[in-house]
F-box domain-containing protein
Amino acid sequence: MTGGKVPIERVGHTHYKTAECPKEKKRSIILSLPVEIIFNIFVWIPADILYNSMRYVCRQWYDIVCDPVFIQEQLIHSSVGLIVDNNGSARTQYFEVGKMNATRSIELGYPFQRRIDATCDGLVLFTEGQNRMVHGNHVTNDQAVCVANPLTKQKVTLPPPPPGCRPAHFYYSLACSHLAREYKVVFTCLSHGCQFFDWMVVTVGKDQAWRLIDSKKLSDLGRNHSPNIRLSTVGFLYLIYNRYASIVALDVQSETFYEFPGPTVPHSSDKDVVSYLVRRNYLSCIVRLESGTILNVWELSDPMSGRWRKLYTFDFDVPKYKSSGMFKGWFSRRADFMCFLPKAWVNNGQVVVFRLFHNPGPFIAHNVETGATFLIGGRYLDSLRSVSHGYAWSLVSLSPILQC
C-alpha cells in the first residue's frame, strides 16, 4: 500500500508524490496569478461576495479586498441598484438589476430603526432612537443621526446639533468630496424665529462638531425655502427647489455654493411631471409634458455653470403594457401614466425605476436602451409606503483605521 501516494518508477529508485486533487490544482493556479490580474478580476465582483467570502480565501486576497485603492476602483465598477426601506421595518431590501434585466434581491440585515434619509457610495444616513417629537420635528436628545455601511456593519454617530439650535425644519444630506474622498453630512435647518436656513457640515469620522457654511451668496429662494429634493453625486450635493426654478449645488470639497435653474424645456407647463435623479454620477432630469407618454431626459454636464444637455427621449406607453396583461393583478384600473413616478436609475443608467402613486405593489422598471419593461419586487413590497434610494454595495470605510 502506498498510503494515498502514487509511485513513480525511476532507474533504481522508487519516488512518491502526493496525488493532487483537481480542485486543489485549479485553486493553486488561481492563487499563483500576479496581483495585478487578481486586482483587475476582483473589481468586477460584487462587494458583498468579496467581503463575505473571497477575502477569507488567503492573506493575499484579504489584502487586495481591504486596499483603499482597490475599494475605490471596485466602487467605480459596481452597479447601482435600489435600496427599499419598507416604512422603517426590519426588512430593508436591496435590488440589483443585471444583464438581461435579471434582478437579484438581498435583505440588508441591518437594524435601521428609522427611515433612511440618504445614501452615498454604499453608505446610509439614518436616525436612531425611539422617541420623536409630536409637535415640531427637531431631533431630541435621545435620538442620534448615524452613518453606516450595511455590508461591513461599520457605524459612526454624528455629533449633536450645536447648543441652542432648535430647528423648526431641518434636513440631513450625505455627500462625498471628489479629491479627498471624505464623506460629509450637511445639516440644513431653519430655527424658530429665523428667516433664513443655516447650513452646517461635519466630516464623518473626523469632525467632533458642526461647522457653519457661508450661504450669504445664495438667492432668497435658496436661503429661505426648504428644498424639495436632495441628491448627491461625486463631489456635489444638489438641493432642488420648485421643479425648474432653482437648483443649489454645493461643492463638497471647497464647501462653495453654486445656483442655477433647471433645464430649459420647450412647451413646459405647471402640469408637467418633473423628476430629478442621479444617473451615472450625474444629476439628471426626467420630464413628461402635460400630454403624451414621451419622456425627455436631460443631464447636468457642468454644475459650476449650470449647463444641461439633452440625452434622449423614450416612450413609456403604460396603456400598452396594461392591455398586454403585464400589470394584471397588481394595479387598479384607474392607474394611468400620471400615477407612475420615476424613483431611481439603476444598472449603470440603463434602467429607470418607477413607483405607482396610488396603489401599493412592486416597482416598474424600464430599460431605455432595449425598451423592455419588467417588475421589481413582489406582493410583500409596498412601493407606495416604502422609501427608495439608488444604492450600490461597497467596501467604503467610514474611517481610514477601520478598513475591513
